[in-house]
Amino acid sequence: MRLLERMRKEWFMIGIVLAIAGAKLEPSIGMNGGPLKPEITVSYIAVATIFFNSGLSLNTEELTSALVHIKLHLFIQIFTLAFFPAAVWLFLQLLSITPINEWLLKGLQTVGCMPPPVSSAVILTKAVGGNEAAAIFNSAFGSFLGIVVTPLLLLLFLGSSSSVPFTSIFSQLFMTVVVPLIIGQIVRRYIKDWLERKQPPFGAVSSSVLLMIIYTTFCDTFSNPSIDLDKFSLLLVLFIICSIQLSFMLLTFIYSTRNNSGFTPADTVAVMFCSTHKSLTLGMLHCVPERISPVHLLIKLTMCLC
């Protein structure tokens, strides 16, 4: 019985393991163009579901108060789109003299230039009782900023320039993030009493959607034949990712818990997830060189899971 209770409590972590294992066994099911059609079900439906779910579960007052928390937003965006890529670049200068595969290092730098995650930061912040409204705002706002800032960062740190489908990414963000959030808020007005009485499992719904995103992303990665990496480099880089992630989370925790920071414990949770995790679901792969893309996908997902 204890084992079953433990498994029930840790169902999300077990789900991650099963999702990755399933993707490894048969990646063709969830790859782009496969039966699950993740280019539609994940890029649009899954992300829209997460933000509709958030709009339905959040009080309007919480969203409104989050909008005016300027200090919190500035810290998250500056850390994510300035400090993070610069710190990774400095660290990679040291790693460049090692025998680690150069495309892994470039993939790591590419991840460092990505905006905050659209879905995972919101879900993880909600799961541990953090400031979900602040996570929603910074995920959305950071993604819109990333349309412009990420290509510039890639040009600065990697010397790679590319044309960015600004209109399509902007419209995708608007339709999958902003519109579902507003619709969720409108629907909440009419069924607020029912929601408070029944208390639907909003967190479980969002976490389940995230498992689908994880599964399809690994399917896309494992199905790519161009990933040819030696195990030493791969394991070493995965260790480096975990180290960077934990170090940055500790750094943001120390800063946001200072007496004069002005952040509440709930704000600290949002800061830690939004500042140190990276975008997973949107079409920013258009901004990176083709040869980096599969490596970038693998590293990006690992960084989002740490």
From TrEMBL:
GO CC list: endoplasmic reticulum membrane; Golgi membrane; plasma membrane
Subcellular location field: Cell membrane; Endoplasmic reticulum membrane; Golgi apparatus membrane
Keyword presence, Ligase: no
InterPro entries for this protein: Na+/solute_symporter_sf, Put_Na-Bile_cotransptr
Gene Ontology terms: biological process: sodium ion transport
Domain of life: Eukaryota
Keywords: Cell membrane, Endoplasmic reticulum, Golgi apparatus, Ion transport, Membrane, Sodium, Sodium transport, Symport, Transmembrane, Transmembrane helix, Transport
Gene3D superfamilies associated with the record: 1.20.1530.20
GO molecular function, one term: symporter activity
Transmembrane regions listed in the UniProt entry: 41-60, 72-92, 104-124, 136-157, 169-187, 199-218, 233-255
Membrane topology summary: Multi-pass membrane protein
Family: Belongs to the bile acid:sodium symporter (BASS) (TC 2.A.28) family.
PANTHER family linked: SODIUM_BILE ACID COTRANSPORTER 7 (PTHR18640:SF5), SOLUTE CARRIER FAMILY 10 MEMBER 7 (PTHR18640)
Record protein name field: Sodium/bile acid cotransporter 7
Native source species: Bos mutus grunniens
Species classification: Eukaryota, Metazoa, Chordata, Craniata, Vertebrata
Gene this chain is encoded by: SLC10A7
